Amino acid sequence: MQERGKFSNKIGFIAAAAGSAVGLGNIWKFPYETGANGGAAFLLIYLLCAFVICMPIMVAEIAMGRHARLNPYGTFKKLGSRTWGIVGLIGIISGAVILSFYNVVSGWAFGYFLQISFGNLLQEADFSAFFTRYIADVGDNLLYSLAFMVLTAAIVLGGVQKGIERWTKILMPLLIVIMLILIVYGLTLPHAGQGIEFYLVPDMGEVTANTFYMALSQAFFSLSLGMGALITYGSYISDDDHIVNSAALVTITDTLIAFMAGLMIFPLVFSQGIEPGSGPGLVFVSLPGIFEAMGPGIGNIIGGAFFLLLCFAALTSTVSLLEIPVAFITDQYKISRKKAVIGLATLIFLLGLPSMLSQGAVGWLSEFVSYGGKSHDFMTVIIDIFSDIGLPLGGLLISIFVAYRWRMHNFSAEVSKGNPGFPGSRQEKFVSIMLSYVSPLVIFFMLMVIIMEKFFEVDILSYLF
Ligand code: TRP
Q1: C-alpha 171 to ligand 1 mean position (Å)
Q2: In the structure, which protein residues have their CB atom closer than 6 angstroms to any atom of ligand 1?
Q3: Given this structure, which CATH class describes domain 10-356+386-438?
């Protein structure tokens, strides 16, 4: 058996876990989900989901991984049974599928970096038309998403600590700085106030079951929870790490950056008269406007720098996504890390092709299936199933597993290793109640409501209330 990787210290783990969490989920997905689901009310529910439902599950994942020192499949099997192992396995497969589309969107960000840096994009008259054309262009997308997967594979090849820790510690602060510049600049634009109002003044009248559900699944996605990424990273940390504090720090960092992304985007959206609910193009369509407003030259530089940093944020996330199946293959089979990385990166890249081609390039993939009264492209279907439904479902199963199979006292003993005050503390009571009762019930209920609504057009809530 080859030696397993390890993070060099506490900060190394926090940097890697925060690097995994902060990515396109914060800057691309969070603003368009917020825009499509009512603005401030969504933000409020999102915060609740992240800190109350998700944070305890993050503690659970890390503790499971550290106790078993294995990938998600091995962890569920070792702490539970062969059947529970299947849950880990499904998580690993979901991770691979998530990476397949995530890599495509990363390619868009990479393309935008080049387009802005070379002065092409900001000359366009209509950024929305440009985006539509851009994502349907096979040549560019193929090249950039391939480049992105190669980079991801190269970093994962270097092993967990060297690649990931170092980059994250330098580039994440830079990303925050440039976002702050854009926030301040954006606030000076006309109608910025309407954007702030939309983002920060809740209108609870807009809230539906769907708002709750999308906030929940967005929190899972953004925190990299629900399919074993943090089981895997947890398996590399040392016994005296304080799991609760680490989880809190990662959750706070991730939430802060998502919150800033909203502050950055909504003033722009309103000052340019873009529809906030316009979907996955929101960031790509609204941001160029601010770079254009800054004037040529400076706009190209700031814009280029922004998209480059976004690519790095995405890269630390794709790395965590690729690491999961790699850990699985190298733990369970006698295959070298190198072979596993190359094989899996190739496979997942190919798996991403239909998503890439479903953005206008190929007709039937772009109108793949109809449900909920709308036709959906292939990538949207994949996001719906593996991310929006798969991750909360994974979180549900992790809660049930820890509370009723691995058992709370074993979980507590593991968490206590780096946190001697944990047993009997209020922290322990809170996490225990959440994992045993609240999270499973809340997530189960929401899953039922949303599956019935989304795929069968049955509104359960209207029968209840
Ligand atoms: N959290 C990342 C983001 O917000 C995406 C991500 C990385 C992820 N690893 C994950 C999502 C594991 C779900 C599961 O961009």
Answers
A1: 17
A2: 20-21, 23-26, 95, 98, 221-222, 224, 227, 229, 317, 320-321, 391
A3: mainly alpha
Q: What percent of the chain has pLDDT over 90?
A: 82
Give me the residue label for tokens 């040529």. Answer: 296
Per-domain residue ranges of the chain: 10-356+386-438
Protein residue with its CA nearest to atom 13 in ligand 1: 224
C-alpha of 113 from chain center: 21
In angstroms, the CA 66 to CA 52 distance is: 22
Could you tell me the pLDDT band of residue 465, with boundaries at 50, 70 and 90?
Answer: low
Q: Which residues pair with 288 in a beta bridge?
A: none
Residue 49 has pLDDT above 50, yes or no: yes
| Residue of 321, 323, 383, 398 best suited for mutating to test ligand 1, as the one with most atoms within 8 Å of CB | 321
User: What number is the average pLDDT over the span 106-129?
Assistant: 92
The b/e string for 221-232 (b: 16+ C-beta within 10 A; e otherwise) is bbbbbbbbbbbb
Q: Which residue, judged by its Cα, is nearest atom 12 of ligand 1?
A: 224
